[in-house]
Amino acid sequence: MTTPALLPLSGRRLPPLNLGASAFPHHRATLRLSEKFILLLILSAFITLCFGAFFFLPDSSKHKRFDLGLEDVLIPHVDTSKGGKNLGGFLIHGQGHDEHRHREEEERLRNKIRADHEKALEEAKEKLKKSRDEIQAEIQTEKNKVVQELKKKDSKPLPPVPLPNLIGINSGEPADPDIREKRNKIKEMMKHAWDNYRQYGWGHNELKPIARKGHSTNIFGNSQMGATIVDALDTLYIMGLHDEFREGQEWIDKNLDFSVNSEVSVFEVNIRFIGGLLAAYYLSGQEVFKIKAVQLAGKLLPAFNTPTGIPWAMVNLKSGVGRNWGWASAGSSILAEFGTLHMEFVHLSYLTGDPVYYNKVMHIRKLLQKMDRPNGLYPNYLNPRTGRWGQHHTSVGGLGDSFYEYLLKAWLMSDKMDTEARKMYDDAIEAIEKHLIRKSNGGLTFIGEWKNGHLERKMGHLTCFAGGMFALGADGSRDDKAGHYLQLGAEIAHTCHESYDRTTLKLGPEAFKFDGGVEAVAVRQNEKYYILRPEVIETYWYMWRFTHDPKYRQWGWEATQAIDKYCRVSGGFSGVKDVYSSSPTYDDVQQSFFLAETLKYLYLLFSNDDLLPLDNWVFNTEAHPLPVLHLANTTLSGNPAYR
Ligand code: DMJ
Asked: Which atom of ligand 1 is nearest to the CA of 531?
């Protein structure tokens, strides 16, 4: 066959095209352009076919090699008389190959390939007949199957560890009928908060009690993680609300899933979720809580992948990508966030036998120990890339608070063995007392904030937790100043009570000043709100446990009544926007910490001391009780307390 001449690009009439005598013996005549095109088209199709056949039709030599490969290893031996060798039941073919058998095998394989192709083609045709929705549903079902398999794998029980001494989970019943009645009232408030969340916000992070629907904020990311359920579990348990506890447990078992594309706050998830799950595990003994806590902790670990090991503030649970809050000074991480992981992470290492969690928090501690501190104070901001402080702001309230709390509690939780943490706590509060604590003209002790080289005479509601902290740390204090710290705790409790008492609603503002003739009163409109926070009541409870001074129960009862009167709505409890206004407006949020902390501390305030005794339990910063660990014999290393 001759090769056709190349077609010219222009459209002018062409000289006769010689297609070769053997191809068209009777048609040597000149062809018209359209005919030429058709013929060329046929020819090029023919050439393509030949080309395809050459490259894609089965090459028997390739098959031979493939067959040999297979046969060489795996064709079971039936007959060795044709020259093959028998090794352990399988025949290795050598010379004397049976050609006939080989062709049969080749044919069998070819048929199989053909059948497989046809099957795949049929399946593809079937798929194409389906609608987009049907195909998507099928993909989702497949995905779910994979997720279920992964879940099964993740839910394997963890190695058992001896449980610490779990004392005082169920008692606390007061003999005094008046106290019992008050305690029952607080339990009723818990039920009101829970039932409404159950009805209107179930599975959402929080509740909007007026709009009667779910609510969330960026700290929980964009997925429904049932923050209120997890945060409320241990309160339900100690109040004896066991049906509600079981409902919560069931939801967690079936729905709490951390493989979500959601960016959460490492600190908030640690204190509310990991703390809540661990406490629920210790109280109830239900394995599911421990498993979920460990799964979640694994998702937080990528946040520590920074040049210094100081974790990012936020992490995406799926991708593990971390970053810091845009508002934080010079891209810094926040002291109260990366410094409030210790209790939960030590428990995670204890329960799993995996030191990874413990090592992360000890690394943070070691790094902080090495750093210079202006005036002995810890600034609120630390850059996780450079390891340098950001702005020199120091606070015992927002951005700093629970870092100091966790130094003390690390010591308590280690059965007072972690003396390194105690020393850091003692050093820190000495500097705080020297530079931040003052008495107002009216004689109120307050804790101000250090900003750009001067003291701001303003105290936050959050800072009021420190009264309880000073009392809790009194025993074991340096130079045996127990009396002094108990007194300091009492003074802070008094100041914070004043901040409540000087309002119209008898509820405390978010921040209050001690300046220009103002004492314990909020000045700016945007500091007059009360969002169901616990810190003042928390301090009343600690002071009550250490002194049994009845005024703490009285103050706690005042707060209970005010919350019930001004924050209660038919759909739950709401924060209020102005505690100085006689007709308050609501913020329409029932915070999860209201159930975790505020109502728990109130309930404990009206219970006997044998309910969760402080010698055996340490409360994390979200009021989740974790047992004291007697770790002298464990393999955790790096800290004298855990050797
Ligand atoms: C709680 O989530 C914790 O107590 C945290 O440490 C700071 N404050 C809120 C409640 O006010």
From this structure: 11
What are the E-state strand segments in 30-179? 85-87, 90-92
pLDDT at 19: 31
Domain presence at residue 406:
yes
Report the alpha-carbon distance of residue 561 to residue 315 in Å, rounded. 40
Residue 375, in any domain of the structure: yes
> Ligand 1, from 408, 597, 619, 620: best to mutate by most atoms within 8 Å of Cβ?
597
**The total number of structural domains that make up the chain:** 1
Q: Whole domain around residue 394: which residue ranges?
A: 175-625
Scanning 303-400, the segments in alpha helix (DSSP H) are 335-338, 342-352, 356-370
Looking at ligand 1, which residue's alpha carbon is closest to its atom 10?
533
405 is catalytic: no
Confidence (pLDDT) at 88: 28
Furthest C-alpha separation in the chain: 124
For the stretch 403-434, pLDDT in tens is 999 999 999 999 999 999 999 999 999 999 99
Atom of ligand 1 nearest to the CA of 591: 10
What tens digit of pLDDT does each residue of 531-552 get?
999 999 999 999 999 999 999 9
pLDDT band per the 50, 70, 90 thresholds, residue 564 = very high
CATH number at residue 305: 1.50.10.10
Return d(Cα 605, Cα 510) in angstroms, integer: 23
Q: Is 244 one of the annotated active-site residues of the chain?
A: no
To the question of pTM greater than 0.70 for the whole model, the response is yes
| Closest CA to ligand 1's atom 8 | 462
Question: Which tokens go with 108?
Answer: 């069998």
Let me know: does 358 contact 638? Beta carbons within 8 Å.
Answer: yes
Predicted local distance difference test score (pLDDT) of residue 616: 96
Report yes or no on 369 lying in a domain.
yes
Q: How many helices (H) and strands (E) does the chain have?
A: 21, 21
The number of the ligand 1 atom at minimal distance from the alpha carbon of 465 is 4
Region at 572 (left for phi over 0; alpha for psi -120 to 50; beta for the rest) = left
Task: Please give the order of strands across the beta sheet that includes 454-456.
Answer: 393-394, 449-451, 454-456
Please give the Cα distance from 367 to 2 (Å, whole number). Answer: 83
Active-site option among 71, 244, 449, 535: 535
**Domain assignment present for 15:** no
Give catalytic status of residue 535 as yes or no. yes
**CB neighbour list of residue 141: distance below 8 Å, 6 or more residues apart:** none
Q: Please tell me whether residue 164 adopts helix, strand or coil conformation.
A: coil
Tokens of 359: 């090592």
Active site residue 401: yes
In this prediction, residue 210 has a pLDDT band, given cuts at 50, 70 and 90, of very high
